[in-house]
């Protein structure tokens, strides 16, 4: 301590010089980090967009997707930006006035035009995929289905986007793309971790799709994917006519046929509708579908009367499944091969709407049956009072729909009370709806590569953290070095003095 004044006297610039060097050193390090951060930060995130129209049997939805322009091939990058419900019925409902099918899409397409930045319009692909409603219309009246598709095509081509076509997708595509969507969103494709099976329930068809390690006995039900460097053997089946609206017609038709006479007023007592429910309906509304046969008196009406009995409803719904005649080692129903269900499942669309409304999504199978039985037995007046804001058509059908869902999953697909908890009823994963549309777009824009794309070894956040850590380490080492170099000089001077 006594030597300090002498040292200072010897070299009065020593300390300021060290401070000056240290300050320069710190400024250098800070600048290095700042430059690294600024240089590597994506300056202004550029997004690309894609539009898919899901032309379902009951309604059409327009989905707008967006993704960062430079990260097309990374899983989880494409997200739903907006979804618009087209007012009115599904496009197959315009078979007698096809022009209205195209017109119905305008409000949602106008919205898409306004929310996607103008300079991206010409490169934004638009796809329309029609599902089971149009499959049925094509079976019933191919010319009408052609006209409906022409009408939607005409309207979609008037928009400034890159129109890529309107077509009826197959049930196999619907199942496969639903599976791709949930697994893409779940990020289960990049890690070879377990995938999520996909259960989709529509109005006119239903799909089951899952990875199965068992022998695939039916080529029609088997798809092989190579995605991000992993091979997947996927089982899929789409049951046309087994969407919930068509099954309602099927089971009503089963109840009408035995009491079907030409003269009397026909009263059909239905255990799947609430006690006190009474509605005049036309035979036509039940027998107008290619899924239902055997109408003799199209002009006749009947009284649809609820009796609200869960057990009897289950028995009635059960009749729409044909369990005889499996030519494989194992079947679901109607002679269709299906291996035992495996792994976790995401159940979406009407599976979710119905189970969520009935508050059954988290219950065990037995609890769900019990709750549903009580719900079905509740008088219609009380149901209406309890849910004044729910559309009456949906409200009247929840007992039936819930019973159909439990029956399809248990008696159809052979889920049991042991693996019931493997089914997750989901609407969205992140911001994006579960459904076939995202998978359809990813496939058509080649955004899911067969092999894993090369990505930087570190994500951006990790890179910045490492840079900062190294900078701090260098700084500390520098300071330490200053101290160490100062000491010997000091002690040497001390010794000399
Ligand atoms: O909020 C809801 N509650 C109950 N059911 C709904 C709700 N929203 C849609 N749905 C039903 O979901 C189903 C959707 O089927 P979609 O129109 O996709 O037919 P598809 O897939 O067979 O072509 C229809 O049965 C429709 O009534
Ligand atoms: Ca659908």
Note poorly predicted spans: 1-8, 489-497
Shape: elongated
Question: How far apart are the first and last residues' alpha carbons, in Å?
Answer: 14 Å
Count of individual helical segments = 16
Give the oligomeric state of the chains in this entry, treating copies of one chain as homo and distinct chains as hetero: single chain
Strand order of the largest sheet: 8-9-7-6-13-14
Biggest β-sheet description: 6 strands, mixed
Helix content: 40-55%
Mean pLDDT: 90
Q: Total strand count, please?
A: 16
Subunit structure: Homodimer; disulfide-linked.
Subcellular location: Membrane, Caveola; Membrane
Pfam families: GDA1_CD39
Family: Belongs to the GDA1/CD39 NTPase family.
In short:
It is found in: Membrane, Caveola; Membrane. The chain has 497 residues and is an alpha/beta fold.
Polypeptide structure, described:
The protein is α/β, with parallel strands linked by helices and 497 residues long. The protein has helices spanning 4-10, 14-40, 99-104, 106-115, 132-140, 142-156, 171-185, 244-256, 283-287, 310-318, 350-357, 365-377, 380-386, 392-412, 436-444, 460-496, and strands at residues 47-55, 60-68, 79-85, 125-130, 162-168, 196-201, 205-211, 222-227, 230-240, 266-270, 278-282, 301-306, 344-349, 423-425, 428-429, 432-433. The structure holds inosine-5'-diphosphate (IDP) and calcium ion. The site of calcium ion has 4 residues, from loops.
